[in-house]
């Protein structure tokens, strides 16, 4: 099974900061990597699929990159509504349909 | 508008059974595979099970294999999860999620329900 490891597990940042979250796969997943955002009490929401494709309606300050085993989610200028938990997920080798453990982005 | 509405959660004793349902609307249900994903409150997301559009392919996480059964009724646009031999560690918020598939290894969850809470406790 492919394991997904995110870093950091939590992160404190300020509005306007540029933030990068990393996701590492235990083996190559080529570019089959998705990112989700989850706010407290809400269901997860798809942000990015296939490493770098922005889901419709997602602000352009979100971007994704990487390939193989190492991937990033970058928020170019943090907005108040971006404070949430972010999860990566691989779709290359399934089942299982593995998520990372999550990165909680908090206000500094 | 796509809607996924879960129901059936509640408090149940260890070893007992519970059946979750997910009512889907706003899309062609039998065009898509569907999943159950769970989340222990305050913890991360754990995939539970997947069923293909025609029920011809079904997968389970090792943690629930042999105890949970996923099924769907395309005529009613509904998804179910029969949970038997429940354990304390099955306590979680259970989401149904719609799969969007774009190539041989490319898919994602493009819509999620709001979840139904299952609490397993004596």
Attribute tags:
heterodimer; A: 108 residues; mainly beta; 6-stranded mixed β-sheet; 4-stranded antiparallel β-sheet; 10 strands; globular; B: 122 residues; 7-stranded mixed β-sheet; 11 strands
How would you describe what is shown here?
- The complex is a heterodimer of chains A (108) and B (122).
- Chain A has 108 residues and is mostly beta strands.
- Chain A has no helices and 10 strands.
- Chain A has strands at 4-7, 10-13, 19-25, 33-38, 45-49, 53-54, 62-67, 70-75, 85-90, 103-107.
- A 6-stranded mixed sheet of chain A has the order 2-10-9-4-5-6, with no helix packed on it. In chain A, strands 1-3-8-7 form a 4-stranded antiparallel sheet, with no helix packed on it.
- In chain A, strand 5 and strand 6 form a beta hairpin.
- The mean pLDDT of chain A is 96.
- Chain B has 122 residues and is mainly β.
- Chain B is built from no helices and 11 strands.
- Chain B has strands at residues 3-7, 10-12, 18-25, 34-39, 45-51, 58-60, 68-73, 78-83, 92-103, 106-112, 116-120.
- In chain B, strands 2, 4, 5, 6, 9, 10 and 11 form a 7-stranded mixed sheet that branches. In chain B, strands 1-3-8-7 form a 4-stranded antiparallel sheet, with no helix packed on it.
- At the A-B interface, strand 4 and strand 5 of A face strand 5 and strand 10 of B.
Strand content bin of chain B: over 45%
What is the β-strand count of chain B?
11
* Mean pLDDT over all positions of chain A: 96
Task: Give a short account of the largest sheet of chain A.
Answer: 6 strands, mixed
Helical content band of chain A: under 10%
What order do the SSEs of chain B take from the amino end to the carboxyl end, as H and E? Answer: EEEEEEEEEEE
Shape of chain A: globular
């Amino acid at each position: 099974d492919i394991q997904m490891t995110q870093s950091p597990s939590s992160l404190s940042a300020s509005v306007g900061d540029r933030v990068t979250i990393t996701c590492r796969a235990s083996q190559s997943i080529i570019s089959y990597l998705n990112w989700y955002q989850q706010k407290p009490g809400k269901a997860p929401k798809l942000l990015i699929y296939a490493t770098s494709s922005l889901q419709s309606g997602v602000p352009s300050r979100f971007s994704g990159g990487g390939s193989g085993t190492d991937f990033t989610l970058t928020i170019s200028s943090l907005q108040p509504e971006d404070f949430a938990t972010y999860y990566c997920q691989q779709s290359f080798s399934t089942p299982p349909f593995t998520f990372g453990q999550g990165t909680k982005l908090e206000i500094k | 508008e796509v809607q996924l509405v879960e129901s059936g959660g509640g408090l149940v004793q260890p070893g007992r059974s519970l059946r979750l349902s997910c009512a889907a609307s706003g899309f062609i249900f039998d065009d898509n595979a569907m999943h159950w994903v769970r989340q222990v409150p305050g913890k991360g997301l754990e995939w539970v099970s997947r069923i293909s559009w025609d029920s011809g392919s079904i997968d389970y996480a090792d943690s629930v294999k042999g105890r949970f059964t996923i099924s769907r009724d395309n005529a009613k646009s509904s998804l179910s999860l029969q949970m038997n031999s429940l354990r304390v560690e099955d306590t979680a918020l259970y989401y149904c999620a719609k799969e969007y598939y774009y190539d041989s290894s490319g898919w994602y969850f493009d819509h999620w329900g709001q979840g139904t809470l299952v609490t397993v406790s004596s």
